[in-house]
Amino acid sequence: MNKRIQQNVMIKGTKDGFMLHLDDSCSFSELLKELEVKLSANYQFQENDPSISVKVHTGNRYLDEQQEEKIKEVIHKKKKLFVVEMISNVLTKDEAKRWKDENQVTTVTKVIRSGQVFEVPGDLLLIGDVNPDGTVRAGGNIYIMGQLKGIAHAGYKGNNEAIIAASVMKPAQLRIAGQVNLSPDQYSKWGHDLECAFMDEEENIIIEKLQVLKKYRPNLNRLEGGL
Amino acid sequence: MGEAIVITSGKGGVGKTTTSANLGTSLALLGKKVCLIDTDIGLRNLDVIMGLENRIIYDLVDVVEGRCKIHQALIKDKHFEDLLYLLPAPQNSDKTVVNEEQMRKLISDMKPDYDYVIIDCPAGIEQGFRNAIAGADKAIIVTTAERPAVRDADRIIGLLEKEEHIEPPQLIINRIRGHLLHEDEEMDIDGVADFLKIDLIGVIPDDDQVIVAANKKEPIAYNPDNRVSLAYRNIARRILGESVPLTPIGSEPKGFMSKLKKFFSVR
């Protein structure tokens, strides 16, 4: 019996706290029980000990929110211990879908017209224009093969790394994460072709020729090998 | 089974009603049976442009509420034997007395009897607009070549694209002033068409005769010699499916001699 307890719950010390490895082959109730035993067998904390962060790794076991709460409850019973992160190797389909949505490029052929708001969770590739008073919003980057004359908001969930690129860049406003860049009063008739916008370290939105992107956002390149 | 075409613009004063009246007349002149419906409840004026305002007995609201039969409310245009009719709007109600379902039913009841049902839409995007587009199969957007009008047209196109029962809208650019085109004061025809990215079905020049005709209670389309009339007749032919090239609208000749030459070369 003693041997099995050791197999199901393993405590590892790291430099920023504990790491709890929970075995994924036993039943959940068994796991909870053993976790409790294991933790109470441990050192009794003193009143003025610093609190210790705990990372919980659940392996290939999927825990729903209630089960996660129960595990946290057990750990929090020991004062001074608090859970910073629950790590699992498995995802539900919903979570996986959200994750995929936020990381994929959505391609649309459409003119975003005055009064319309078009929103995607991940990157947006728009084949068409954004007309004045139209808005496009993306969780990631925005690429527009057409004229941007309305509002583009990249990384609207707070991604400072997001960029906006357009074939013709004459926007009313550019927004990246929480920053807004207003347009000049008048655009010159020529120029503004193939430009991009991104945020620098001081959180200013910079509008530049497309070729500088390679320098500021090398991670945009997803091509492996090749040229 | 006829087609229902809604004439709309978003912005007021760009020529929806004039366009409805003239397209209706032009289609009737081409031998089609047409009914014009004025949906601008409370601010009607299609009846005035058609010169039929003294003959209104029942109106659109009377029909949808069942106080009369459709044929009782229709006013026949005397220029034709049996081709052009008007269903007027009431002047003493507002747009909320009619709903979309009623309009849909009214128009589907009328379509079998006519080749074209032309719906004149009120300005704005509220209930009146929703009513006007409810029963339509096609839409024609009227705009002038000014930024405010084009912006509103853009908004309207966006709203129309969401309606699955309506084909992609077509565009009429109204009141083009030739002399401004060359001075870069106005957005030009290509600029507007490029911006809105929908099919252009006609370009109407600006002409004082349109106002004269409206005051004479007779749409300009009856006048065979006028360039506005010609433009509307060409649009009517395009609606019928003929391919008619767009007539170029250049600047008016400037000098006296060239004006004189032009004067004599007309016709």
TrEMBL record, chain B:
* Short name of any one Pfam family annotated for the protein: AAA_31
A single Gene Ontology biological process assigned to it is: division septum assembly
Residues annotated as domain AAA: 3-159
Does this UniProt record's set of keywords contain DNA damage? Answer: no
Which GO cellular component terms are attached? cytoplasmic side of plasma membrane; cytosol
User: Has the keyword Metal-binding been applied to this entry?
Assistant: no
Q: Which GO terms describe its molecular function?
A: ATP binding; ATP hydrolysis activity
Keywords (A to Z) from UniProt = ATP-binding, Cell cycle, Cell division, Nucleotide-binding, Septation
Which residues are involved in binding ATP? 11-18
Which InterPro entries does the UniProt record give?
AAA_dom, MinD, MinD_FleN, P-loop_NTPase, ParA/MinD_ATPase
Q: What does this protein do?
A: ATPase required for the correct placement of the division site. Cell division inhibitors MinC and MinD act in concert to form an inhibitor capable of blocking formation of the polar Z ring septums. Rapidly oscillates between the poles of the cell to destabilize FtsZ filaments that have formed before they mature into polar Z rings.
**Per its UniProt record, what PANTHER family does this chain match?**
SEPTUM SITE-DETERMINING PROTEIN MIND HOMOLOG, CHLOROPLASTIC (PTHR43384:SF6), SEPTUM SITE-DETERMINING PROTEIN MIND HOMOLOG, CHLOROPLASTIC-RELATED (PTHR43384)
Assigned protein family: Belongs to the ParA family. MinD subfamily.
Instruction: List the protein's name.
Output: Septum site-determining protein MinD
Q: Which organism is it from?
A: Peribacillus simplex
Q: What is the lineage of its organism?
A: Bacteria, Bacillati, Bacillota, Bacilli, Bacillales
Gene from which the chain derives: minD
